[in-house]
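On clarity, I found the account of how folds are encoded harder to follow than it need be. What matters is that the chain and its backbone geometry are given together, residue for residue. For the editor and my fellow referees, an illustration may be useful. For illustration, here is how one protein appears when written out as sequence plus structure tokens:

___
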Amino acid sequence: MRTASPALVTDPGSDARPGILAFLSGLCVLAALMGLGGCVGGHVTPLNGPRPTYPFRALETHSPQWILADSLWDLRADPAEAIRCLKTYRKAVKRQKKVPELQARLSHACYFVAAFVETSLEKKDALFREGEEAAEKAMLQHPGYAARYRESGDETDAARELDSAYVEALYWYVANLGRELNQESAIIRQGNKDRVVALTNRLLEMDDTFYYGGPHRIAGAIPTRLPNGDLKEAKAHFEKAIALAPGFLGNRLAYADFYATRAGDKRLFLEQLAQVTAARADSLPEIGPENRFAQEMAKAMAAKASTLFK
């Protein structure tokens, strides 16, 4: 849930970070690391499979707008189609406001367009906020979550009530919330550490394989953004994400950018980037567009290695 807190620990992709992302602020590709991936929902078979079917919603409830938006998602490598997809999900949500799966897909689409397509910082921020709100509405459809939040006012406490069908909504909530409030100082990020860690731990409990090892990517990035972050813990999470989904190139890209730069490990940095650029982007066809974005970013990062490691 959104609170009055001004910011929280960011996701694995911040154009506010010093160094590597400063020179790439126009590209904004690495901004999508936490959300890099293909199918909007990967809960049933997270590494390569269909979107999840929520147990309380039958497929016949899908509106024409929802079906069209799902089809347009497959064309998202084209920025115009990605924007059209987002607009169509918005229309679908207006028709079916209380379907958590649909709200979660809107949340993901907001994140994708903000991270990969939009260049205006103001518009990007508005999209991340919209994505956060959509995911929040999805979680509020869970009776246990809604009741616990009304009682305690604590989203981390309420998240304990969510079952596995809601991992997609929680994941995109954390992703969008982190990016929306990403521009703040290290002091503010530190002040929000417990909140983000608690939500990330819940994701790890619900399904650590979700979205190509996404919860581990988030957990790996958090310590690298804090003054006294545990780098051993960060390394372990990134390596786990890679082991879970080696075909998802964003895992190695995040390992290089977040862990290797913070640890001052130039050799690891270049090794991971080399593996990204040498990989087959379409080894998992459903994330071909994201993998190609990752390869572009890896080349740009490798070219700046001498300025990152003195």
